[in-house]
Amino acid sequence: MRWLNDRLARTRSEAGVTLIELVVVCSVMTVILGFVTRTLVVMQNASTGSSLRLQNLEEARILMDLVSKDVRTAARMTPTTSPFSVTACTATSPVQTQPCAPAGWTPGGNSAPYVGKSELWFYANITLANQTQASPCPDIVHLVVDTSANPPVLKEQVISDVNPTVDAPPTCIYGALSGGVWTGTYKTRLVGKYIVNGTSSCITPDPVFIYWYDDAAENPVSYPTPVASLTATELLQVNAVGITFAVRQQTNFKVPCATLVNRVRLANVDYNPIPSPAP
Known about the structure:
Layout: H1 2-11, H2 19-71, E1 119-124, E2 139-146, E3 153-159, E4 176-178, E5 181-183, E6 187-193, E7 209-214, E8 220-222, H3 232-237, E9 240-247, E10 258-265, H4 267-271
C-alpha cells in the first residue's frame, strides 16, 4: 500500500513552474509576437502601396487615352495656318472678326493663343459641345493643368461653331456678339487629377506637353521646353505633340509616381501640309 500512497501524494502535488521559467517563456513569446506583428504590418503596407501604384497607373492611363485622342484630331482652320493658331476675341474697336476664342472660358490658365508646357489652345475635329451633328468647322479646345487646385487637375474646355449646318472654314463663328464683346459657353470637363510633373512628388522633369517638328533631313526634333508659348513660326512647323503624365495621389506612403509617355502625330497636319511657295 505504501507505493500507492506515494503515487497519490505525487498526484496531489501542487508544485508549479518557477519564476525564472515563467520569465523565459514570456520573453520568448514576446519576441515571437513581435516578429509576427512586424511581418503583418509589412505585408499590409506592401498591399496598400501596390494598390496605390495601380490607382496611379490607372489614372495616368485615363489621362493619356483621353488627351491623346483629342490632340490627334487637331486640324488647321485654313491650309496656311497652324492648328494652334487660335486667337482670343478682343473687345477693342473695331471688334475682332471671327474665328476667335470668345470670352467665357473658366479661368485657370492663359488666354489664346498659348501653347506651352502644361497648356495649349488648338482647333480640333471632336464636336463635343453645342452640336447635334458634325460640322466642317473645328472646335476650339483649351487644355490646361490647373495647379491652383488641390490636387492639380487637367481641365478641357471646348466651344463649337454656332451654325454647324451653315458655316465652313474659315468662316466659323464661336459665341455671340453682345455689347461689342464676343462671349460663349464652353463645355468644361475634368479629364484627370493628381498630375505632378516637375514637382517634388515626382522625379520626372518632363513637362506635360512637348512639341515636335521634322528638320531638313526629316528627322523628328523637339523644341526646347518653352517657358512661355511657342512663336507663330514655330507653331507652323509642329506636326506632333509629346505627352507625359506623371501621376501620384497624395498619401503618406512612399509610393513612386506612375509615368506614361506618348507622342501623338497630328494626322490632319500631315494630310493637309502647308503648300510650298510658287517658284
